[in-house]
Amino acid sequence: MEIYTLTPNPVHTISKLIFGDSWDDLRHFLPGKPVILVTDSTVYRLYESYFTSYPCVITEPGENNKQLENVQFILNQLLEFGADRSSLLLAIGGGVVGDMGGLAASLYMRGISFGYVPTTLLAMTDASIGGKTAVNLGTWKNIIGTFTQPEFVYILPQFLATQSDRDFCSGMAEIIKHAFIGIPEAISYIRESHQEIWSRKSETLFSLIKQSVLYKSAVVEQDEKELGLRAILNFGHTFGHAIEEEGRYTHGESVALGMMLAARISEIHCGLSPAVTHELKSLLQRFSLPVEEFPSSDQLMHNIRKDKKKSGNHIRFVYLTSPGHPRVELSSFELLESYLHKILPI
Amino acid sequence: MEIYTLTPNPVHTISKLIFGDSWDDLRHFLPGKPVILVTDSTVYRLYESYFTSYPCVITEPGENNKQLENVQFILNQLLEFGADRSSLLLAIGGGVVGDMGGLAASLYMRGISFGYVPTTLLAMTDASIGGKTAVNLGTWKNIIGTFTQPEFVYILPQFLATQSDRDFCSGMAEIIKHAFIGIPEAISYIRESHQEIWSRKSETLFSLIKQSVLYKSAVVEQDEKELGLRAILNFGHTFGHAIEEEGRYTHGESVALGMMLAARISEIHCGLSPAVTHELKSLLQRFSLPVEEFPSSDQLMHNIRKDKKKSGNHIRFVYLTSPGHPRVELSSFELLESYLHKILPI
Fold first, then answer.
1. What value of ipTM does the predicted structure carry?
2. Alpha helices, DSSP H only, in chain B?
């Protein structure tokens, strides 16, 4: 028997994050290569004039369309538009468009250039950063995907003018999450400027999003493949995903409820001050996010046991010891269940 | 406007290449993680006893089954078998199984461990090395895929005992290609030992495959993403793919014809000695590979203009100046067409 060890060259990836002033400025970041746009029918209808200069793939909106079949649709369209290795795929839309566009770009001819213009608050602050793409497989969320850094992300808060209140507030849940795990000074900023945020005042949104995005990108930069540090970003997400699976709440609403559970569990597990839980609750409520309507603990545990992040009978759970100090621990399902029983009806 | 540049950590990948003595030894390379096998129904039938220890996904054999739908079938099976991030997908089969298994492993939960046991000569010498996975999109070959290094490739020549003569000889085309572009001393070795090769004598095959595989892996190591040097491995493949698309010949047979055209073009373009072309032809013929039955030059050029490696009106073509000295040049379709007209009927 003979064994050889091959060590191919490391792959360096660089991603530009641009806080833009206008749609027209985006052109400066489109290189001299063929551009193909990917968007969904909602964004296309609202901003039709933006889509006249390049060929455009239009998908159906909504999380239930985030499936491999629709990525294949995009791939077929790329082929029809004659995309080659020098092409740039520019996705313009919410998280679903970003995920499917990014996955298509990473698969077409084993990877073409990818740029992303997020149009929702959730996508601007969360989905745009991290280099993760994914689609669902049936009802299993985000089980299929790749790690793909976009060449650039162009953030333009003016898109938020047309977002519904419910979806806008859903995005606020992730911003509040970032504040509690890593930017304690942002907690008071959000509280004090919540009126301006509600009225979608440009400068306030700009500074809010920038703070949140730069925090997330700093975490991701240190841990691109989610081997350690990056896990803190899952604060509120273990129970959040279990709640989202029930189909009643949006991602942000589910994360709001998941953070409430994680905070209350952290009070028991590692002495988080109840005042912090109260502050979290009051901030979430200011943005009409749910904070009390939990499924039963049995239903939650049933869903969590299927979580793709589990390792055998354990899962990495994100606790909070104080604002800005999350703590990731491999916790047994039994432990989490015992905490839930102290908080929720069975 | 504000711009930030993010530089995530480089991703290091390491791949082990093992020339094995027996099926049982393979166990030493299976780590203490859950293993799921992927194979096709032909390999499964021939080696059923090998597949008893682990859950096994069985796909349909053949290039026409190398489609995204079948990758999705594998992904669904992984989900059913309860594969998680700690699982290892072990693909056992020819290039189609390796491609689909590798692509599934790179997509499932954004990437799980992947090992590969190639069972055909072509897969052992060619598909096993390079970290490329791909499926076809309709009739477009290998247009969808990823760059994914397997954790290990386990080469066991005993699998070749059950391979058909036609497929075995198809694999010889790539071995002869490697000899002409990079291992001139292998040319005489193949000529002198062609009887032992035909009778599939273990030691001869072992040394033949090792020579070829180590050459390819040395090229790939220097150029994992096919930005430069690696292009030399496409010798005979520009016309080869155009011929393969006609559906009459296997991949290896098409490459044999493609190399004959590339050699004759190289005589005109860069003074390759006709004696080398003659040597190439005689070696290919010893393994029953076609060397003269070309499509018309019009048909060839029609197919080549759709090649995914083209850049506008040009394509990187691999010429040969002498054995061991390939030369890659960006050549216009017009130039290649003019050469074809000197060689083939229109």
1. 0.81
2. 41-46, 68-80, 95-107, 121-122, 165-182, 184-192, 194-198, 202-221, 237-244, 251-270, 274-286, 297-304, 333-343
